[in-house]
Structures are given as C-alpha cells and as structure tokens.
Amino acid sequence: MSHKPRFSSAIQGQPASFLSLLMHTPKSANAFFELYARFWQQGVVAQEIKEMTRMRNARITDCGY
Amino acid sequence: MSWPIANATYEELLNAQPALAKDFTVFLDAIWNEGLVSQRLLEITRLRIAAIHDCEPEWAERRINEPLDEPALTHLKRGDYSLFSPQEIAVLNIAEKIPFQAHEVTDEETDILKGNLGEPAAISLLTAMSLFDATCRLKGIFETGD
C-alpha cells in the first residue's frame, strides 16, 4: 500500500489530502460532503454507534485515515 | 432477512430516510454527470465491480444510452479484458482490486490512470469505483433483489 499521496492537491497552497484531492471534482465532491454531513448530523442512529462502526470498518480495512 | 416494509424494493428501503436518500441520489448523479469520465468507462467499471460482488441487481442494470454488446458483457463478467482497449484495461485492472484488494492498487497503476485520463478524471473514476462498490455491498445486505 502506498503511503504517499498519488495525486496533487486541487487547492493551491494546500497539501494533498483526501479533501483537497476531491476538489479536483467539485461537483461530486460537494455532493459527497452534503451526503456525509447529513449522514452524521441527522437520522435515527446514535452518533456513537455510527462512530463505532466507522472505526471498526477502518480497522478491518486497514484504513489509517 | 426480513424488513419492516414487506416486499420492499431497494429504493423503498433507502427512502426510509428520504433526505439522506435524496442526497445519495444527488451524489450518484454527480458521479455520472461530472463530465470528466466517459459514460462507457463508468459503466464498464460499475459492471465489473458488480460481477466481482456477484451482485445480480447491479449487473442487470444498464445505465448508459449505448450499452455494451453481448460479447463485451460476457467477457467483462468473467474478467476477460481481451475485447477492451488499453485505456479500458488500465481502468479495469484497478476496478478488479477495489472490492477486496484496494490496498494492492499500485502507484504504477494509478500513474497509468493519471497518464491516460488526467488527474481530475482519474479521481472522478476512483470515486465512482468506490461508490459502485458500496452500492453492491448495500444491495447485498438489503437483499431486495433489485
């Protein structure tokens, strides 16, 4: 697995990060951010459960991010 | 698995949270209509990922106006890329790994993708692959058959 960014930042002066890479595709990036924000801020599942599953999934998929 | 809504479709289950479903649809539409990646490239990656997941509902769908012909579909389903262009093969080589071997995508493979498509299109396509993978997983859990 690579440990260096494979793409450049789309935001001048900003380092390559998940967010700055996504901004190469502003339309889908903005749609993703809206979806993600709603997922975390609204709904019927407690945030603690969402966070628990998110972290467990990250562990299983070996996602350091 | 049974659901509170008897004989529910995939869409009906998603619409149990209508605002979230709407945002998900907007995201999906943005992926398909960002304009950076051809519809054909998106479709072949979507179908290959569906085949790897053995997700019949996703495989059965045809999302583009000029669908792949039967020989291409047959080859794609079994992971035979001999009917596809070098650019398409470079894309499919990555799509092959997304469901269960994402960590094994190499720097060389992403460099080839960037070289073929440019950075914005490569990122758009990789984002799309992740969404296609997630959709297959969700449909697999829901088991609505559609």
Could you characterize what this model shows?
The complex is a heterodimer of chains A (65) and B (146). With 65 residues, chain A is mainly α. Chain A has three helices and no strands. Chain A has helices spanning 18-22, 26-41, 47-60. Chain A is flat, with a radius of gyration of 14 Å. The mean pLDDT of chain A is 88. Chain B is mainly α and 146 residues long. Chain B is 65% helix and 0% strand. Chain B has eight helices and no strands. The mean pLDDT of chain B is 93. The chains are: A mainly alpha (65), B mainly alpha (146). The interface between A and B is medium-sized, with 24 and 27 residues.
Q: Which terms would index this structure?
A:
heterodimer; A: about 60 residues; mainly alpha; B: about 150 residues; 8 helices
Q: Assembly type of the shown chains?
A: heterodimer
* Alpha-beta content class of chain B: mainly alpha
The percentage of residues in β strands of chain A lies in: under 5%
> What's the helical proportion of residues of chain A?
40-55%
Would you count the extended β strands of chain B for me?
Answer: 0
Distance between the termini of chain A: 13 Å
Please state the average pLDDT score of chain A: 88
Q: Please tell me what the overall shape of chain B is.
A: globular
Query: β content of chain B, as a range?
Result: under 5%
Number of strands of chain A: 0
Element-by-element helix/strand order of chain B = HHHHHHHH
Distance between the termini of chain B: 15 Å
Structural class per helix/strand content of chain A?
A: mainly alpha
What percent of the residues of chain B sit in helical stretches (DSSP H or I)? 55-70%
Order of helices and strands of chain A: HHH
**Which two chains touch over the largest interface?**
A-B, 24 and 27 residues
Profile the largest sheet of chain A.
none
Please tell me the overall pLDDT of chain B. Answer: 93
- Main sheet: strands, sense, barrel of chain B: none
